[in-house]
């Protein structure tokens, strides 16, 4: 196998030579990150001008093409969704942010975007030259079709699963250049200990999840706490169809709750697009590849696929909501914190699913830097903040004080339902606004 592809293997430095001034280069999304190509391209800083790089949700602590070029003369980095490092870079004015809906991203690439070079992290190939897309199916297969030059970066740490029907599989035949080398351990993520409010929010949601439900869980402490409570509950035959599979689903599997038996599509399989979590999670994917259906973002995030699944439950967090149910999930005023990502996709899918439901989970209030209590449920979303999800798609809002069920309610009814789950310290002023506004 190696002999067949020998002419494609280059060092990262040699591969980086194909990138020219003005090129558009894709680095991918999530835990799949081409670190060798990032380093090799950064090393060419003084030779290049205006190379534009796309990526998003990077879990690594630094991006070398950003670190090496603070004046952005050689490299301009564009993020679809800010991870922790990208958030700091964006706040400092060192990278750009481009909003998008994940399910539409492949169409954007097909119809609107230029890709000169795609740097794709892949797993070690098998004897026939097939690789898996590791921790991120993303929309790599669409990007590969659009790219003028395709570079595979083989990461020896990546899980090697290829999807039970090849949904996660690509061939070395599809690469123009192949690079390999020693990589850092895969980036891992963990959760903080849940607060008392987190636990109450989770308890409120768990009471409403039926047996046989298929779950989409966002990445965060509350979704993980919900999974832990489900693992200890008497709920049975839960399923997974989610944007990002995390340790929350591993907890359900270890408790014998994650069977995927009730799903009408991908029955018996946990379906996902990205992976984020612990090394134990990555080891699970490696050890049990027959349990998973990793697939492209426009399959996993397509609401019409979720519509085929009964009792599809979407659970995500938010930053702020207003009394009409509009949600800001991604900014603090004009400061971008993350991105819309797939939240809107899964809210719509849950709405369409027979017996399905979407939940936005949020603590009713928070302490600011001065220690003052601030409500997360507001009369209106402040000017400059993002409306990530419209009021018409927000079905349920869960706080530590209960769940506001909003579907079908009038504006004033929605406001009163939201006030009922707001922090008691803010209810009077919210009621005064509602009574004056929603007549």
CATH secondary-structure class of the largest domain: Alpha Beta
Distance between termini?
A: 73 Å
**CATH fold category name of the largest domain:** Glutaconate Coenzyme A-transferase
**Individual helix count:** 15
Low-confidence stretches: none
The helix fraction, in percent, is 25-40%
The CATH superfamily label of the largest domain reads Acetyl-CoA hydrolase/transferase C-terminal domain
Main structural class: alpha/beta
Percentage of β-strand residues? 15-25%
What does this structure look like?
This protein has 439 residues and is α/β, with parallel strands linked by helices. It has 2 domains: 6-180, 3-Layer(aba) Sandwich (Glutaconate Coenzyme A-transferase); 196-437, Acetyl-CoA hydrolase/transferase C-terminal domain (Glutaconate Coenzyme A-transferase). The protein has helices at residues 12-16, 35-42, 64-67, 84-91, 105-111, 140-146, 196-206, 221-232, 247-254, 279-287, 297-300, 303-306, 343-352, 411-420, 427-437, and strands at residues 24-29, 51-56, 75-79, 96-97, 117-122, 130-132, 149-154, 169-171, 177-180, 214-217, 239-245, 270-275, 292-294, 312-317, 320-322, 327-328, 331-332, 335-336, 357-361, 365-367, 373-375, 377-378, 396-399, 402-405. The strands form 6 sheets. Strands 13-12-11-10-14-19-23-24 form an 8-stranded mixed sheet, with helices on both faces. A 7-stranded parallel sheet has the order 4-3-2-1-5-7-9, with helices on both faces. A hairpin with a 2-residue loop joins strand 17 and strand 18 (335-336). Helix 7 (196-206) crosses helix 8 and helix 14 packs antiparallel against helix 15. The longest helix has 12 residues, at 221-232. The model has no long low-confidence stretch (mean pLDDT 96).
């Amino acid at each position: 196998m190696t002999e067949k592809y020998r002419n494609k293997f280059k060092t990262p430095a040699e591969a980086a030579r194909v990138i020219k001034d003005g090129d558009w280069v894709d680095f991918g999304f999530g835990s799949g990150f081409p670190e060798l190509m990032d380093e090799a391209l950064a090393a060419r800083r003084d030779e290049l001008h205006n190379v534009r790089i796309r990526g998003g949700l990077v879990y690594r602590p630094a991006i070398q093409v950003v670190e090496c070029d603070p004046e952005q003369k050689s490299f301009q980095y564009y993020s679809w969704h800010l991870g922790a490092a990208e958030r700091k870079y964006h706040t400092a004015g060192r990278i750009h942010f481009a909003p998008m809906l994940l399910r539409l991203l492949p169409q954007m690439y097909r119809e609107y975007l230029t890709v000169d070079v795609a740097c794709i992290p892949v797993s070690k190939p098998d004897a026939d030259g097939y690789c898996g897309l590791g921790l991120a199916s993303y929309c790599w297969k669409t990007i590969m079709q659009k790219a003028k030059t395709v570079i595979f970066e083989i990461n020896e740490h990546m899980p090697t699963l290829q999807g039970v029907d090849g949904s996660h599989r690509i061939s070395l035949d599809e690469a123009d250049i192949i690079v390999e080398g020693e990589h850092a351990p895969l980036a891992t993520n963990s959760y903080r200990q849940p607060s008392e409010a987190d636990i109450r929010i989770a308890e409120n949601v768990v009471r409403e999840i039926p047996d046989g439900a298929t779950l989409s869980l966002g990445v965060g402490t509350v979704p993980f706490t919900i999974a832990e409570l489900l693992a200890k509950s008497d709920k049975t035959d839960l399923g997974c169809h989610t944007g990002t599979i995390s340790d929350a689903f591993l907890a359900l599997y270890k408790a014998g709750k994650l069977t995927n038996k009730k799903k009408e599509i991908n029955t018996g399989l946990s379906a996902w697009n990205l992976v984020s979590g612990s090394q134990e999670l990555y080891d699970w994917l490696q050890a049990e590849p027959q349990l998973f259906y990793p697939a492209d973002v426009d399959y996993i995030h397509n609401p019409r696929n979720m519509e085929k699944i009964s009792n599809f439950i979407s659970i995500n967090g938010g930053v702020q909501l207003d009394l009409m149910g509009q949600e800001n999930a991604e900014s603090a005023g004009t400061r971008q914190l993350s991105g819309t990502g797939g939240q809107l996709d899964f809210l719509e899918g849950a709405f369409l699913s027979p017996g399905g439901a979407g939940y936005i989970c949020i603590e009713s209030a928070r302490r600011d830097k001065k220690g003052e209590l601030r409500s997360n449920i507001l009369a209106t979303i402040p000017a400059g903040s993002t409306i990530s999800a419209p009021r018409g798609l927000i079905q349920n809002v869960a706080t530590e004080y209960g769940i506001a069920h909003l579907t079908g309610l009038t504006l004033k009814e929605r406001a009163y339902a939201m006030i009922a789950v707001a922090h008691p310290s803010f209810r009077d002023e919210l009621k005064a606004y509602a009574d004056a506004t929603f007549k």
